[in-house]
Design goal:
With 175 residues, the protein is mainly α. The protein has six helices and no strands. Helix content is 85%, strand content 0%.
């Protein structure tokens, strides 16, 4: 910044002044991209303070003008320098926030998918598997019963199996 604002005193070719004015720009852009809007604001503050302090010492690229025009030229330069940099910083931070939101949403989606799988497995285990186990036990008892009790227990097995079939169909429909 000091080199940019004091270049008029040691540089013979005045045609390079606009290019020299933007010497701090690569550093300011790097800070904006790397560290965000707060860093961009800090870098612009450094450029502004350097430009003002150099202008107060009458060491400025705008020295050929009267003091009112120097102030106006400095303000226009700083405005032309600061606005695009701040907009770039805001845009970068906005895209970083959007990326973080996307990551959070993807994480929540995977978590809810995992929870749904666990819930379905638990429902199948506690519902259908228990009913099929009960039907299996009743079927095991049927083998040892006299023929008159066979019909009652066979009916119980049939009811258990029908309930299990219904529950399995409901679970698969929900899936």
């Amino acid at each position: 910044c000091i080199v940019a604002f004091s270049a008029w005193s040691w540089m013979p070719a005045r045609g390079f002044f606009p290019a020299i004015l933007y010497l701090p720009l690569p550093l300011v852009l790097w800070m904006t991209v790397r560290f965000g809007i707060k860093s961009a604001s800090g870098a612009i503050l450094v450029v502004t303070m350097t430009a003002i302090s150099m202008a107060l010492k009458d060491v400025t690229i705008f020295a050929a003008m009267n003091s009112d025009m120097q102030v106006l030229a400095l303000q226009l330069f700083l405005m032309g320098f600061a606005i695009p940099v701040l907009l770039l910083g805001a845009s970068i931070e906005g895209s970083q926030r959007a990326e973080a939101t996307n990551r959070d949403l993807a994480h929540k989606l995977l978590f809810s998918h995992d929870e749904e799988k666990r819930r379905t497995a638990k429902e199948l285990h506690e519902g259908v598997c228990q009913e099929l186990s009960a039907a299996s036990l009743i079927a095991g008892q049927i083998a040892h019963l006299p023929p008159e009790d066979l019909r009652t227990n066979a009916k119980q097995v049939e009811l258990q199996l029908q309930k299990s079939i219904h529950d399995l169909r409901s679970a698969s429909y929900l899936l």
